[in-house]
Amino acid sequence: MIKNILLGRPFLVVFNLTRRCNSICPMCSIWKTPSKPKDELTLEEIENIFKDLKSYGIKHVFLQGGDPLLRKDILQIIELLIDLGFNPTLITNGLLLDEKIANKIAELKCNVSISLDSLDEKKYKKIRGVDKLPHLLNNIQKCSKIKDKKGMWHITSTISKINYDEVMDLFYFARKNGFKFNAYPYNYSHCHSSAYDEEMSYDDNPTIIIDAFKKLSQLSQKEGLIFDKLIYDESIKYIEGNYCAPCDAMKRSIILTEKGEIAPCLEFNPSANLKEMGIKQALKQLDYSKVKKCYIETPCFYGCTRGSGIIIRTIPEIFLFTLKNPRTITSYIRAYS
Ligand SMILES: C[S@@+](CC[C@H](N)C(=O)[O-])C[C@H]1O[C@@H](n2cnc3c(N)ncnc32)[C@H](O)[C@@H]1O
Ligand code: SF4
Ligand code: SF4
C-alpha cells in the first residue's frame, strides 16, 4: 500500500456490490436502475478480481451499492476479503442490519458505516424516500449494545438543506450510542450516481451548510478528532467555491461496479471490465485528464475520493497532532491498517 501511495496508484476500491436498494433516496440515482442478481459478480469472480487488486497493492475496500446487505452472500464476501488481506468497510442504510447479522459482522475485522441523516421521521422519509426511521433506530440501538466490535463503527450523515440544523444532534446521538460520526455534503453537480433534489439543494443558501460544517470542525478540534476536522475544513472550502484540494479519483481510489467494471469515481461512466483484464491494464484505459478537468470545472465532494488525499497532503499537521494525542491516532491505525 505504501508503494501505491508513493506512486500515486489507488489503494482504495469502492465496490458497488449491487444496484438493488430498499430505499429510494431522491439524492441518489442508483436505485432507479437496479441490477439483476444474475448479472452481479459471483463470489468466485470477486475472489479472482480481488486477488489481482491485492497484488497491485490495494488494501482498503468500501462495500456499498445499492445496499450491500441485499446480497445474500455478504458475510462470505466480507470473510473472503479479510482472508485475502483487505481492510473492508461496509456502508449501508442499516435497514437490514438486524441483531443477527450485526453480531456476525461485529465478530469480523470489518468497519461499518450506517447512514443516518435525520432523527426526525418526516425529514428521514423525505431524504430516504421510505418511512423507516423507527426501524433503523431500533437496528442502531441493537448494534450499540454489541460489545467488542472488531472494526470501527460509524454513523454517517449526508448534509443538505433539509438536515443542516441537525448536525450536532446527529454527532451526539452517534457518540451516545458508541459510534464515531462523519458528515459529508450532499453532492448534485453531476447526477450520474447522485441526483438533484430541489428541497435538498443549497445553491440558493450555501451559508447554512457552511455553518453546519464549521460547527463540526470546531467540535472535532475540541474533541481531538484531527482527521474529521481536516475533512470538514476541506468540505467548507468546497461549498464556499474557493480552492479545494484536488480530487484523487483514480489516483487514490477507484470504483468497481457490480458487473466488474471500473470507473474513476461514482459520477463517471464505467469502462474496462476486470473480468476480462487485470487492474494494471484496465487503469491504462482511464484518463486522469478528465478527472482533472472535472474537479477544476465541476467539482463534487465524496469522502471516498477526497478523504485519503486530504490526509496524505496534511501529514505534517497530523504528525504534530500525533505527538500531542497519541491515543486518538492509535485507534484509527488499529481500524484502518
Ligand atoms: C450510495 S450510498 C450506498 C450505501 C447505502 N445504500 C447507503 O445509503 O448507506 C453510500 C453513501 O453515499 C451517500 N450519498 C448518496 N447520495 C449522495 C449524494 N448525492 N451526495 C452525497 N452523498 C450521497 C449515502 O448517504 C451513503 O452514506
Ligand atoms: S443512497 Fe444508498 S440507500 Fe439511498 S437509494 Fe442510494 S444506494 Fe439506496
Ligand atoms: S470531482 Fe472527483 S469525485 Fe467528483 S465527479 Fe469529479 S472526478 Fe468524480
UniProtKB/TrEMBL annotation:
Q: Does the keyword Iron apply?
A: yes
Q: Which UniProt keywords apply?
A: Iron, Iron-sulfur, Metal-binding, S-adenosyl-L-methionine
- Whether S-adenosyl-L-methionine counts among this entry's keywords is yes
Q: Which Pfam families does the entry mention?
A: Radical_SAM
Fetch the SUPFAM superfamilies from UniProt. Radical SAM enzymes
Q: Which SMART domains match?
A: Elp3
List residues of the Radical SAM core domain. 7-226
Query: What is the name of this protein?
Result: Molybdenum cofactor biosynthesis protein A
